[in-house]
Structure formats: structure tokens, C-alpha cells
Amino acid sequence: MNKKKIGIFVGSLRRDSYSRSIAKAAVSLSPEELEFRFIDIGNLPLYNQDFDDDGQPPESYEKFRNEVADLDGFLFVTPEYNRSVPAVMKNALDVGSRPYGHNVWSGKPGGIISVSPGGLGAFGANHHLRQPMVFLNILLLQQPEMYISKVASLLNEKGELVDESTRTYLKKFMDAFSKWVKVISESH
Ligand code: FNR
């Protein structure tokens, strides 16, 4: 089977990140048509246009842009910082969008999962993330939406997703995401 390569972008650098735990659960519940790789976004210097204008981007930018260009789709798993997207996630989007005319995100399918220990499921982050994706031409899965609230209560001490209803819903989300990736791939 020709599996589709999906990059996972986790918007937290925290050692015991809940978002990363959910990302791992998403991989384990995904249909086998998809294969995943976690893409490191924590080593990208803050975007500075001078790097590209001078023709001397950091090595980490070049590696990241090549990795993203090689993917068939993107899964973003993000916490919420101050009702928005953590800077590390936005920075990764910006790095992949430049130099001008070389947006490596364009035309590929994406999905968003937002995660919070609070009660609002990081709704603010989820929707703020959608805004740049319109411009970047990341073709986002619209339904089902995936907002995970009270995440600490859904994981065991090893960080495994043990809450059955969340597992069921996450599986439904991953099934829909897999179909979405197929639809977009076949339309190119
Ligand atoms: C937070 N947190 C948070 N949570 C939330 O639901 N809405 C919010 O607006 C914020 N704001 C916020 C700002 C900053 C700077 C920090 C550090 C944290 C709490 C956040 O959800 C919590 O730290 C999660 O554990 C972060 O996700 P990871 O690291 O577990 O994946």
C-alpha cells in the first residue's frame, strides 16, 4: 500500500506535554493508510526575513522546509496560550511560508486537534490557527472538529489516552482525516 506521509506538528515543547500525548494517541488510532513522522519545530530560530533576503537561511530552516515539502499532509496538535496559538507553532508556519513564492504548505491537506487541561478545549488556539492556514492554502478538514478539554483527566500516569469516549471520537476524527487526505491527493 502506498501510504501517505503525514507530518505531526506539536505546539508545545514541554517534556510532559499533554498535546504530545494526544498526538501519539492520534497516531495509534489512525487508519493504516497514513504513516506519521513528528516534525521538530522547537529548534527553528524566530523568523527573520534577513536570513532569506541575504540568501543565508539557518540550516534548521532548510531542513524543515525540505521535510515539509516531502509530506503529503499535516496534523497540527496544539495547546492554547493566552487564547491563541503558542508562538512556536506560528513561527513554524512562518518559516515554511518563505522565502516569498516558496510556501511549502500550499495545496496540502491538514487537520487540527486542540488540547487543554481547562474546560474550553483550546477553542481560541484552534480557530486562530485556521486564520493563517487560509492564506497558506493548507486545505483543512472542517468536520469533525476536535477540541479536547480536561485532558489531564483523560490520560493515565504514562500519558496514554485511556478515556473511552475520547478514544472513540479521536478515531472518528482520524478516519475522517485519512479520507480527506485521500480526496485531496486524488484531486492533484
Ligand atoms: C497556558 N494555558 C492555557 N490554557 C488554556 O486552555 N487557555 C489559555 O489561554 C492558556 N494560556 C496559557 C498561557 C501560557 C503562556 C501557558 C504556559 C499556559 C495552560 C496550558 O493549557 C497548559 O500549560 C497545557 O499543559 C499546555 O499544553 P501542553 O504543554 O501540556 O501540551
Strand content: 15-25%
Tell me the CATH topology. Rossmann fold
Ligand kinds: ligand FNR
Query: What is the CA-based Rg, rounded?
Result: 16 Å
Structural class: alpha/beta
Q: Give the low-pLDDT segments.
A: none
Written as H for each helix and E for each strand, in order along the chain, the element string is EHEHHEHEHEEH
CATH class: Alpha Beta
Mean pLDDT: 98
Please describe the biggest sheet, giving its number of strands, its sense, and whether it closes into a barrel.
Answer: 6 strands, parallel
Give the CATH H-level superfamily.
Flavodoxin domain
Overall body shape? globular
- In the CATH hierarchy, the architecture is 3-Layer(aba) Sandwich
Question: What level of helicity do the residues show?
Answer: 40-55%
Distance between the termini: 19 Å
Task: Report what the structure shows.
This protein has 188 residues and is an alpha/beta fold. It has a single domain, classed as Flavodoxin domain (Rossmann fold, 3-Layer(aba) Sandwich). 40% of the residues lie in helices and 16% in strands. It has six helices and six strands, in the order E-H-E-H-H-E-H-E-H-E-E-H. Strands 1, 2, 3, 4, 5 and 6 form a six-stranded parallel beta sheet that branches. The model has no long low-confidence stretch (mean pLDDT 98).
